[in-house]
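Fold this complex.
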Amino acid sequence: MKVENLRKYFPVQKSFLEQMFARRMRYVKAVDDVTFPIEKGEIFTLAGESGCGKTTTGRLVVRLLNPTSGKIYFNGSDITELQGEKLRLLRRKMQIIFQDPYASLNPRMRIGDAVGHPLEMHGLAKGEDKGKMVLDVLEKVGLTPPKQFINLHPHQLSGGQRQRAALARSIILRPEFIVADEPVSMIDVSLRTTIIDLMLTFRKELGLTYLFITHDLAVAKYISDRIAVMYLGKIIEMGSKERLFLKPMHPYTQALMSAIPVPDPKRKRKPIELKGEVPSAITIPQGCRFHPRCPDKKETCALKEPELVEIEKDHFVACHFD
Amino acid sequence: MIKLPLLDIDSLAVDYQTGTGTVRAIYDVSFRLEKGETLGLAGESGSGKSTLGLSIMRLVPYPGVITNGIIRIDETNIMKLPEHEMRSIRGKKVGYIFQDPMTSLNPVKKIGAHFVELIRTHEPIVSEKEALERAKTILKNLGILPERINDYPHQFSGGMRQRIMIGLAIALNPSLVIADEPTTALDVIVQERILDLLESLRKIYGMALILISHDLSIILERCDRIIVMYAGQMAEYTTGAELHRAPKHPYTEGLLQSIPNIELSDQKLSAIPGSPPNMLNPPEGCRFWPRCPYVMEICRLKVPPLIAAEPNHLVRCFLYGEKGARIE
Amino acid sequence: MDKVKVTKSMLARLVHNVGSLTKKGPSGWMVIIGIIIVSALVIMTAIGPWVTPYNPSESNVGPIRAPPSLEYPMGTNHLGQDMLSRTLVGGSIMLQVSALSVLVCFLIGVPLGLFSSYTGGYLDSSVSLVIDAVYAFPGLVIAIAVAAVLGPGVVNMALSIAVVYIPSYFRIVRSQVLSIKELTYTEAARAAGAKWYTIITRYIFPNVIPSIVVVATVNFADAVLTAAGLTFIGLGVTYDIPDWSWDLTNGWKYLSSRAWWIISFPGLMIILLALGFTLIGEGMSELLNPKLQR
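Structure:
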């Protein structure tokens, strides 16, 4: 999977009159020139706070949204413009898991039907065969005994169980690539590891590649191979897990990591103070978009936007230091 | 002279009488809170921690009913207080910070109006002008420009709205503040600021704090003592340091092993098998037994009593015998 | 064998569902009472022809305008017809008209709403515009206009009432579709590669059904009353067959001569029928979208 110069701008809704008389359209620049590769078998994480564009990027990658500009490559081919039947066929290979287990399952469909539905959609299996595959995949995600679960409705399952059902639904087509959008944020803490471990198992067993989206860097550290930190629509730091956590270089990454609570009462953290709040994505600051809040800002920061540069092996940062 | 606690709760039980059955949301909860102390209520969905916070204010929503127990605030038994007296305690003696700052503020009222209404309801002698002045001072302490007193809630970001909520909770200088998941809807950097703010205000005004959260990390970092709630009961009750050093309840153990620590590498995390119980039909005996790696016969039959395994370390588990020794 | 089992289980579920309504408080009772009333009237109309003491259409079975008595418990009308017999069978036309109009509305309004709002864009905007225009007119006015064009008769009555109500179905369906379209499980279906008609039929429609049921019951109630209205002004039932609204139309002139029984009983039946449907609709609406308590 490779994403190049991806941009997604949402036009700001204006009243009828404003639309007639305004000279320039204003846009919410949700994703603003994002480029990253994902290797096969890798777990690549997009991390950042709300509004940074990670969720939008996830949806762009599976073509639930269409990019304003840029290119998306999957297995070498350009999938940016795919439409109709070709797009549907592509969907067999890419799946997405959503954040809210309460909303991602149709309340009126039984679990068995919901999980097996993708098979029907693509005409891959029917009747008994489909039934067998559904039972098999429910077994895999730990919803046992599977026969008991196929006739239940979502409201009869707990949050963790629903998310497992959603996971089952996503792997039943044996895809190659899964986007997981905050899959554990709305699940009880004691159950999160189950889902995460399932995802890791499937990577090995089914040869899956993941784009993992999260705001929780601690979870990111546990599961990822490589991480990209996003701020206001751009990747400001990217690299292998080891490099990033050992020596975070971008002031935002440093501040973010310092703010994460640690389950240890004896540890005295020293959080880095950041001024102000995250600005709106409609009026992005000039130059480096982080500069108004940066504790280390210099003169160039307000003038020129920094490029993502490889400062050591597999560690990229977009910052004007030295 | 014996120091009397600020908050004294004894054998509290709260039920929700729904159309489909009775949910025993809280059962046999007892603890004390001293002036200026911080208590953390940790737990996951169905643990009853939010209900507990609301019970202290006698704000349990219908169809919830307090079925047992005594709550004393500053020696006053609030269980039988008439509503108008209870109203004067709410806000003035006990402040409450709700979870969702987006919907907890009235969108058609200016921020100043929120404060004025609050202040003048409890202290009618205060003039509107005076109340506004006080509000402006509070805003300054919150790190918000006092001129914004005439802005509406939608003009503030989530983090600032939560700060305003905190401001409203402490405006009347209560002795106790209950914060129910104050940072769940917020990003981590904002969360840090909010919690720091709460801490500094607490110190300035000498308030006690009950912090309710499912995030055990922030509770461990910021609370003197911690109650771990499971399925409406107190599973464990001790100091934060003790809980981290030597957790006694299997649930606490499991919980601590499932939290990723960003400062550690190559962590081996494990989840607690199973799911939190259906509170309409919880398991017989100890409510945790279906998920417990150390389950014994007696666990399935009887509810373990809360005992002191060590001085200042209460746990509800049959693993701990009379003298507090752990049975292996 | 399998089919018997399935039907039995469906019946069992139906009984269970109705039984569970009793536990849901006042709204549940509303639905139950409404169902009882409607069922009673339907059954009465169905078995009516067999239990009438006299032939409802036969004139002069008794004295003209005789007050209620043992022989004629509901009295007789100006043609000497027995009111009890007429009341027993008089609901047939109204029920047929209402049922037919609801069916037509459903078959036209719902798919139109589903397709138009799911597609969106100019199609949706134009269709909505037309529908809103129709909606703006008072129901009876449109019904009269259409009935005037089509002429009297059961089917035409049903059609004219249907035209009035299609906009309601359309609007409810549309508002539901617009919100469900944005929900995550619809997104998930799209992401899995579902075709648009699959999404509409299996993801959106089943979740829209509860709201449609509510509209349908209100539709029924209103259809009953509109049918009565049409007959009253001469655009509905025009020949003498036993019908509540026909009796109502012809009977009101006798109020002044104190023959109250001629309009009272048919009128009461009409009210009961409309009430029954309304109770079901209100009750279900409350159950499905509970208002905030206290």
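Chain B has a mean pLDDT of 87.
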